[in-house]
Amino acid sequence: MAALMLSVFTVSIGYGVTLPLLPYLIERLLGAGTDATHVSRATGLLTGLYTLSLFLFAPAWGHLSDRYGRRVVLLIGLLGFSMTMGIFAFIENLAAVYAERFLSGMFAAAVTPVALAAIGDLASTEEIRARRLTFISLAGIIGFLLGPMLSVASARGAASLFPVGGAIGILAIPLAGTAVLALLAAAAAAVTVPAQENTEDTIGREGERARGRTWLVARLLMLAFLVSVEWACSRSDWRFAESRNSD
Q: What is the pLDDT confidence band of residue 201, given thresholds at 50, 70 and 90?
């Protein structure tokens, strides 16, 4: 359980860490005199590309975990996420940043859904399953909330301790730290998460149960979509008001 919570926490904090860094990174790559509109547009595109990759690859990773087991897919996701975040720390090209954000979202999509599925496999009762799913969700929320704060704090701390620049700059430190945390989460998952193999009979039974809940899944997805749109619109209104106040 602790390994699964750490895995979800890691990918969530990795997403939160990049949010305050993207505008500064884009401005550095495009040049100090870049128009703020171009920086804002690139920041929005990179953030949207990450979430689009999550949306596209989560079903595929879930299908692979049903067939080949949870642990192997979880390890692929964590190791790939660690690799992309480590590369992100040293990127010096905007096109490479777009590729990294897409790949990072692709590997992150293998972590949270598979961790939730593993809870469903291992919980002995419905009450335990519900409680553990709540803990997993809390780990993701905490990681998302702590990510921006830890990113700014570590970057400022590094700038005050030792002035570094170029490819290995202060922006690289929180990204590299996230890559290391993902490696630790992968090691914990490799040791603790069972390597269960799903048989064809099990896959068939799960498929029948899933088809019986198709209507519920569709409604839950629509609800999640509406909440996400509302959140994105509120964030846009807040940023617009902030820019007007600064002007």
A: very low
